[in-house]
Amino acid sequence: MTSRIRNTGKLETIIENCRSEGKWPRVIELAEELKQGSPNYECLANFLIGEGRLESFLEDNPPVEANTNKLKNGLQDAKRYLKLVIGEDGRKAGIALDAFLLLAKLDYACGNYDESLDNFIKAELNTLSEKELTLRSLRILAESYAIKGLCLEQQGIKAPSKFKKAEKEAEMISCFEKATDLGLLYLQEQDIVTPSNVETRRMGAILETALQRAPIVLIKAGRLQEAIERYRTMLNAVETRTTQSLRLTLARQLAEVLLRGVSGTMYTPPLNLSSTKTGPNTKKLWKPRKYSGRNQFTPRNHHEEIILLLLISESLAVRDAVLSQSPEFRVARSHALGNATAVYDLLALSTIRWGLSNLLNESFEKALKFTFGEQHVWRQYALNLTFLGHHKHALRALEEYSDLAPHDPLPLLLSARICYENLGNISEGLEYSLQALSKEIRGLRPSRAQLYVGVGYQQLAVTAALKSEKEKYTKLAIDALEKAVQYDTNDHLAEYYLALHHAINYNISEAIVHIRFALSLRAEHASSLHLFSLLLTANRRPREALCIAENALDEFPDNLNLLHVRAHLQLHLHDIDTALQTVQKMLSIWRDQYESQTMVNENDNERHSDTKSILQLHSSQLSDKDSNSVYAASLAAASRVEQALSEVASSLSSFSPKPGPQRAWMIQLKIWLLLADVYLAIDQPNEALNCIQEAAQIYPLHHQVMYMRGQIYVYLSQWYDAKQCFLNAVSANPCHIEALTALGETHHVLGEPRLAEKMLKDAAKLDPNYPKIWFTLGKVMETLGDYTAAADCMATALQLEPCCPVTGKCSGAISRRNNVKYLFQ
């Protein structure tokens, strides 16, 4: 490609400047003047007129398939002018090459791909050598390679053989790569010559398509690593004003390719560009300038590069955000929002995968400045807040999401779940569930909302103090859960919660029927297997229960709930050595799963700690990875007492909370208490006391620690010390049934029957279905001489005993004192 204007005067210089700036009406006007004033330049003038008419028409009508017929009719005049200069006169004037390239562009716009390729052959595009070019010539050449690549892509689909197809594919990839390099170089040169206060000329549809198409054709050809390198090369090119929006697309696409198509073992980090700098003698004329520097950051691994790309994309998306809400900016605002949402979706996937939720939270907080009306962003933000444990903030975010999606029950269900599981606010959770139910009924799929309503009523029944309230909520719960089963007969969770409700109310036979049906719907549900095992113990079938627990542990070997049940069953069946091994295995699993979480600096303790109360953690955390608690609201008072005791302990001693998430420590505390129980069963009180000391180092004033210490004193017949421990446990948690029962029994042994009667009756009010309470109360009433009441108490104990699970002594799995309650899945 040669220069066509050689010192031909001021007019020609003005024309060349107008061509570079894309002022095509002015080019045509000046070409007409040149044609009239200098007949010797008629050939050049015809070329300029044809070029001007082609480019001006394409600016108003981009070369897309929908415009094909319009372009065929509208470009006839331009085609006629360009054909006038492809003969000998054009070759002598040095413009025939350019004319062929523009004719190829014209044929491509009209959908004549074969004719376009013929023009490239006539122009001998493949034989061009690198040399200095004007700005306009750079653009023509970049577009020519792009158009040739697009035409070859069209031809490749119809290739007659695999060999021809591969040949076309290789040539097409080469064209796209050259178009990319020349296009970026053109945009860089344009930035240099265009003043900063002048609007930069647009890239154009053809160049933009080529820049985005280059890596995609490599991916389609199965050359993934080359595609990644092409993305990196384009992103490392010096940025221009025109490529800022394109840079966002390329960075996001590369991050998506690395996320979806590259594993950690296949990953190859980018080269250190500072070590591969080329000298001045090796500079290539048709390659774009690249960033280079001694302190330039280079990603070292897979996730570093992905996070870097997404953070770059996010900064570009935030910069391009349209804050104005005026109607005239609606399209631009929608486009910018679409780009930002795509970036935040990928950022959510990658940050959650690598445990960078705090980083994601910061990004969402920035995003809300310009996406405050976008329900998708609010939903992602709320889910991330929930994951981080910021439950109150998550609830507010879900309320905003619900306002933006008034017909969607999902935000209400998520809000109910947070209230049930994390905030202990059952009434508010039930209100959200009822609102969701009203929306889902209109949507003809109310099963899950109906289930949430049933769970809410179930928890209100569990926590109700008055008998009338308990009966009312129990009836509402059973009605709601039965409706949930009717609405979706294949929902294993509805059957599971219905079984749980029957179990809480000691309808063991009904509970077993429903839990069997839940397992027939989903046999691998750990929570259902756990409940089934407990129900079998309540049905006095401990060996079958142990078999179920063993089989479940084959599927879920690290499930601490199932191991807990197995240990109690082994104790019940006098298999003490195996029970001891089971608890030791639980400690080993804790080390594998949780010890790393506790390895944090003391300064980070607050940042990493859970927001749940100690009592909530104790009541629930021996749960598998797909399950968790639905906390009872009545436990809040006990939690506050424990918190006060903790503050007293902190002020009177050197005790301070363990670093790291408190959830992990409370799981370990419960394992130590279970181990102490096992050692007591094999008559090793000293070893049991050592276990209590280990638990006390985690949380010395926890009610279970004090209760278990009292049990050791009972074993040693040190009743006054036992009484003090049980009093402390009841002070820390007035709802702890075992401590109240043990305190009543201790008063009885110490000759204080009236105090024993008071403690046991308080325990019976909290849980009238615990047989040990009635048995002990019967003995107390016998001591007091009330033989009729004693007989009634003993009869009640005998009636309840067949329905009490073996593990009820310590874990209280099917009773008010510590329900089996699991996370919705």
TrEMBL record:
Q: Nucleotide-binding: present as a keyword of the record?
A: no
Query: One Pfam family for this entry, by name?
Result: TPR_8
Q: Which domain of life is it from?
A: Eukaryota
The Tetratricopeptide repeat protein 7 N-terminal domain is annotated at: 1-363
**Does the keyword Flavoprotein feature in the UniProt annotation?**
no
Question: Keywords, A to Z?
Answer: TPR repeat
Q: Where are the TPR repeats?
A: 669-702, 737-770, 771-804
User: What's in the GO CC field?
Assistant: plasma membrane
Task: Give any single GO term for biological process.
Answer: phosphatidylinositol phosphate biosynthetic process
InterPro entries noted in UniProt: Endocytosis_PI4K-reg_protein, TPR-like_helical_dom_sf, TPR_rpt, TTC7_N
Q: Please state which protein family the record places this protein in.
A: Belongs to the YPP1 family.
Q: What does this protein do?
A: Involved in endocytosis.
Could you identify this protein by its name? Tetratricopeptide repeat protein 7 N-terminal domain-containing protein
Biological source species: Hermetia illucens
